[in-house]
Write a structure and sequence with these properties.
The protein contains three helices and no strands. The protein has 64 residues and is mainly alpha-helical.
Amino acid sequence: MSALAHSRPRLQRGATSTEWTVATLIMLTVLFIPAGADGRSAMGLMMEALQGFHEHTSYIYSLP
């Protein structure tokens, strides 16, 4: 057997937390930065859709 077969693999420390931090910052940028011709963000569009859903269904929720 070779010496590589008996050696322990090197551990990478801290690389995963850096990758998750970068991925989180990219996702937040994509969700909250306005884009497109109308200048609305993806999160803004989702909030408008939820508000419209609530406006249309709040009466039904109030019925006994």
